[in-house]
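Exercise: predict the structure of this protein bound to uridine-5'-diphosphate.
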Amino acid sequence: MISVIVPLYNEEEVIEESYRRLTAVMQSLNEDYELILINDGSRDRTASLAAALCEKDRHVRLICFSRNFGHQIAITAGMDYAAGDAVVIIDADLQDPPELIPKMVEKWREGYHVVYGKRTRRQGETIFKKVTAKLFYRFLKRMTQVDIPTDTGDFRLIDRKVCDAMKKLGERNRYVRGLVSWVGFKQYALEYVRDERFAGETKYPLKKMLKLAMDGISSFSYKPLKLATLVGFVLSGLSFLYLLIVLIQKLCGFAMVRGWASILAVQLFFNGVMLIMLGIIGSYIGRIYEEAKGRPLYIVQEEIGFEDR
Ligand code: UDP
Ligand code: MG
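Solution:
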């Protein structure tokens, strides 16, 4: 059996079309399948539309979160519930074409454990999103030892073994695409063109994008922490040089009263650097704090369609 995980947050405009195209594709494979819809605390009609789909199709199952927990957590819940020998993760908005799934399954049958979609081009997204995404993926690659592929989202097929391995990773601030790389196994990159959203707007405003980026970096690298040491050394070195200059000036008998502006500038600069470093350290401590609390990753309000398993 193949499980397909579809996270949904306010997707009333796309859910039905998405269901239609996914079903057409899955029917064409001669293998049993389940569609696991995760309603991530939507405020629109997504929940009732999804429940109606469960009602009429025995392949559809639904998990409703008690509130919005975020895309990455929704995918994680899907993996927890999935029973398939292979698990496909796909966005609800049809930006990742469902018609690619048969190709993924083919590669999986050839023996690959992870088949991920690599975007060669993105359509219908803002220049800002394209540029920031491109820069971010490359930046992340330089920051970490884990080989996280560039231009790759969560659209992928993973084998049961990978899914089980992922379930053992309990961390809260999840960057799922990185965790899949961390887990390892035989991976295959399937290139595709990312389509426009079928309808509606992106559910990833700048704030969520920044959080995802921070999670990606802090989960897989502690280089930002080392930055403090590096900047500290460089600035101390420069300060020492400046001190020498001042001493020499003094010894040579130059008048020393001027310099109010330079003192102020140096002060402000150092304070700024200090606060930035404190902020970086703070964001890591915040993450440690969240892990230490050990709360569950998500709260399920309702499950539909899992009884007959
Ligand atoms: N999503 C979610 N919870 C959120 C935000 C998004 O489950 O808090 C889902 C959303 O419904 C969609 C997928 O995650 O199926 C990707 O979101 P979106 O297409 O808005 O992101 P983009 O493609 O613009 O990066
Ligand atoms: Mg999208």
